[in-house]
Write a structure and sequence with these properties.
globular, alpha+beta, GCN5-like N-acetyltransferase, transferase, Aminopeptidase, single chain
Length: about 200
């Protein structure tokens, strides 16, 4: 798959490159990113460079992932991607630099990625389904997925490998035929989790 950039009214989504390594490394020192994203800890400049070049280049070239750096002006605001692309499906993943959280940036970036994922070839990937997963308790990520229209599909007990062993995993999905209005999520507003807010 060839690398490509996406744009929204406020953001530019570009494939990661070597110039992103320092900003990636700085962002990955954040305790929240280290808690919820499966990255090496400690996260070094070598890790950032490897991810931004070899790792992302291979993912694009092999067609199993499409990964973008989220840019707001000249600043890296986060990272978003479609992972495990195959058989008409993929999984959405994302994280934000702490200074850019709570401003709607990740929702805007993810909408552009969903549009690309569901658009028919050659404008997009022609996917039928995009999934979302997060360690149970990652309310920030869940609220983004909920706003994007994902349908909560359940909790898989001890199905995710976390830093300290197995953890419960929240899962949701969005079909190309679904409307993208915000959906109720029991994990945020019911017995599986505390009240959102």
């Amino acid at each position: 798959m060839e690398k490509l950039s996406l744009a929204t009214p406020n953001l530019e989504l570009v494939p990661p490159c070597a110039a992103d390594a320092e900003a990636l490394t700085a962002a990955c020192q954040d305790p929240q990113i280290q808690r919820w994203v499966p990255i090496p800890v400690p996260y070094t400049l070598t890790d950032g460079l490897e991810y931004a070049t070899t790792g992302c280049d291979a993912a694009w070239a092999e067609g199993h992932a499409a990964i973008w750096t989220i840019r707001l002006g000249d600043k890296m605001a986060g990272n978003v991607g479609l992972h495990r692309i195959g058989h008409g499906a993929a999984d959405l993943g994302f994280w934000m630099v702490p200074a850019f959280r709570g401003r709607g940036i990740i929702t805007e970036a993810c909408r552009a990625v969903l549009d690309y994922g569901f658009a028919p070839d050659p404008e997009g990937l022609g996917l039928k389904r995009i999934g979302w997963n997060a360690y149970a308790g990652n309310h920030g990520s869940a609220r983004v997925a909920q706003r994007l229209g994902f349908r909560f599909e359940g909790i898989s007990r001890l199905a995710a490998v976390g830093r300290d062993g197995l953890e419960d995993d929240w899962g949701a999905g969005l079909l190309a035929t679904d409307d993208r209005s915000e959906q109720p999520w029991p994990a945020l507003n019911g017995p599986a989790g505390p009240q959102a807010g």
